[in-house]
Amino acid sequence: KVLPEDVKRWADDSLRGILQGLFASDGTAYELESAGYPHVGYGSTSRELVEQIMWLLQFRVGVYPGELATSRLGDRKHAMHSINISHLCLLRRFLDWIGTIPGDRGVRLHRSVSAAESLRRRGVGYYARRHSQNRVGVMSTYDLEVDHPDHLFVLANGLIVSNSAKH
Question: Among 38, 45, 62, 135, which residue has the least CB neighbours within 10 Å?
């Protein structure tokens, strides 16, 4: 195991400390340019570590990140595994539980969550909720990139799509 086997039984303060350190070192905090909504993520070349962190977030903190994603960028030797929290109420729960994430990532995340909450209170922006989620297994997917400086496009059926190369 990457984290100690008994980490699932650690006291909240001890668990909080290790998660603060992990997110300060290998975490990300950013705002989606198009909507101004914050995201926090964690990535590592160790799939096992990311799975352990995902379990801890779900069952100890009550925060449910999206699906674990795996990508291989450029000519890197190892794949990158990552999780992402983007739902505003889950981000607030994460921040309330974890407290302060050291360094610039923590400052940016707290600032962007506060700004997003302010926008939401004023009714600015689009906010969607997931009604259901079903695992469908592994499927082939395709990515189409439009050669245009903007990255969001509205299709004829009203679906909004984006160029993924910018992210």
Answer: 135
- The whole-angstrom separation of Cα 134 and Cα 47 is 22
The 3-state DSSP class for residue 68 equals coil
Residue 161 main-chain phi, psi, to 5 deg: -125, 160
The residues of the chain scoring below 70 in pLDDT are: 1, 32-36, 119-131, 142-167
Report phi then psi at 31, rounded to 5: -110, 140
Gap between the Cα atoms of 90 and 88, Å rounded: 5
Query: Whole-prediction pTM value?
Result: 0.67
Helix (H) or strand (E) holding 153: strand 152-154
Yes or no: say if 52 and 3 are a contact pair by the CB < 8 Å rule: yes
Tokens at 9, concatenated: 């039984």
Tokens at residue 29, please? 């905090």
